[in-house]
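step: validate -> pass
step: tokenize input -> pass
step: predict -> running
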Amino acid sequence: MLQNYLVTLLRSLKKNKFYTIINVFGLAAGLACFFLMGYYIKDELSYDRYHPDYEQIYRVVEIIKDTEESASCPFSVGPGLLNDFPAEVAQAVRFFNFQAPSLSLEYQADKKFREKALFFVDSTVFEVFAFDFEQGDAKTALEQPNSIVLTQSMARKYFGEENPMGKMLKYEGKQLLQVTGVLADVKPNSHFTFDALLSFSTLKGIMGSEPQGWVWNPNWTYVKLKKGVTPSQLEALMPDFVSAHFPNFIKADVTLYLQSLKDIHLHSHLDYEIQPNSDISYIYIFLAIALFVILIAAINYINLATARSAQRAKEVGMRKTLGAQKSQLVLQFLGESVLTCLVAGVLAMGLLALLIPPFNALAGKTFSLGTVLGDPFMLGAAIMTILILGLLGGLYPAFFLSSFKPISVLKDQFSQGKKGVLLRKSLVVGQFAISIILMVGTLVSYQQLQLLQTKNLGFNKDQIMVIPVQLSPIVKQFKAFKNAISQSSAILEVTGMELPLGAAYQNHEFRPEGAPAEDWQYFPSIFVLPGFTETFGITMVAGRTFSADNESDATDAIIVNETLVKQMGWESPAAAIGKQFATPGADNARIIGVMKDFNAASLHQPITPFAFDLPNNENQNNFFTRYYALRINSQNIQETVAHVERVWNSFDPDRPLDFFFLDDRLNELYAFEQRINKAAGAFSLLAIFIACLGLLGLAAYTAERKAKEIGIRKVLGASTSSILNLLSREYTVLILIAFIIASPLAYWLLQQWLAQFAYQTSLHPALFFIAGLVTIVLSWLTVSFQSLKAARANPVDSIRIV
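step: predict -> pass
step: emit ->
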């Protein structure tokens, strides 16, 4: 019997090659997309969960009232929590890094690299996190000063195939570091990665003393709670902890809380994240797209399966006449449907192999066909999905065709009835409503990304060359470096700064004049050097900018933006000139200028009060001047870079020049959105393609069903255009209904998504009409392909009585 069913299936598939190809290929494309997106979602949800005790690990977050909510904490918070709460805290670890220091081999100074993923950590790091040791002892690897643990990739980079254990590296060409361990590369599903870890005590040799304090907060601090201790129990103790340790001028504004390790990657968007995170909203978007794509593919399959079922009515009638039982017919149709889905599933694996490389490029992943199919959960989900689709596709024809009376079919009195037609129409409306939502979403997300990348930030970001100088001797020779670099006419302006403008900022304490001694306010601010506003083209609306010729500017001058003036309640920018603040470097700094508002951070955030300050002594200059910024002429970039490199090497021959262009760095702020937008757009187009593929099959079925009607109309003089109108009118109406349903739903969904941005593109009605028009045009083209074929057919063939 099984052999008979299989022969019947193969005969049916062979007889209806066109429908078989559409059914199998459409379903395979939908399954491949669904599996890939499903694995992506599973991967995103797995971040940091490979640590054995991840549910006990928390990051300490610091909130400074009305100023920042920071992923980082002051130096003393970690050790303080471990010391004060031994009953609650099992262990604590801090991560701290400088901006891209250089490492070199001890006896091969030319083998030198700038390392951005290098952290100073407490020796307890391996008691909190489960990083895999390949060489060395986790308990002792970072106990001593000047110890460094490398990842496997980092070890190969410096030592090739040699055993790195015990070998020496040089930090900034001076500090010797001994390799005390080698780790496996950090798993990609981690909210931060690194190439090397240095013992925290090494900082004493680099900075002169091991840093401490309760104000400056550059450490990412993690605690591991003891079993049975809940985060709320420790958080309840935090207010007393802050009151006991933090300075009087800030303790009233500080709140500490715990953030679960497993929530960081998708739910954390704090200031000063250790690395950019993803967002749970994008998981919902990808989940929706995955479900939409598989739903459209399933609708196609079910639609064509039910539509074509009528063509097999005589076969079923004959089988029932010859004694076939209803259960046998049901089993036959269900089996055929499941087998067809299995074939589509096998084809989907091949399509998946083709989709993974471009998807990796778009989403920044490292998936392979082996990792996807080797995942037991994904393999089980794939088998279940195929079986469910097979059963759904076979249920209607199985129970419908097996229930009618054979005499009706054999007398040509069989009809699918209104219910079957209504079901197909409803499914068509549903799949095109989904397609329109996806298309509108793609258009809006593209416009939002364009807004983020092209909006006027209030300063010049183009042709700004940024050079990290922290820890370099050049940081002490700004004037000499500026004079030397400016010998080229390609260098238009030169300045220095604490952080790249537009990408990040610090918060520094300020006390307005007349306020009590303990009444400090924290404002976003950056330490800069003279020439900063000229380099970045920042407009002054009142007063003046810093001047290198005015020596008092370094000790008693600040400039602020318009928003800070408004927040302080001053009448106008002009009224702010001369107002005094106590700053980190001066007790009576005067406002000498007010800048036009600009975006100091990403466009995810609104404009905030902002201040620029000058380092007021050599120590502050050495610490806060971490980058030089050069505005250059864009006519000959290569020659300009060569000139900068020559000057750099004349000042610091032991350290290779490292630089980036500011516009590239700022575009990186939206790199995640850009990748997601491209990936979502690609899968949205795939969903629309699958929908049109199904429409092509239905149009072919309609043309076939109306073949005699079309033939008679042509004999009676009907034109090709009238035949086209006859066959496409029905689907046009269905797509218009889909547009009416999809538009308000898409509008609401996109409003929710855009709410996360401080600056939003408008949901213009034209975007919805474009999506609707494109969908209608695509459907017309799809239907017209079959309609023209039917309209041009010889009417004699269709109306001939055999």
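step: describe -> The radius of gyration is 34 Å.
step: cleanup -> pass
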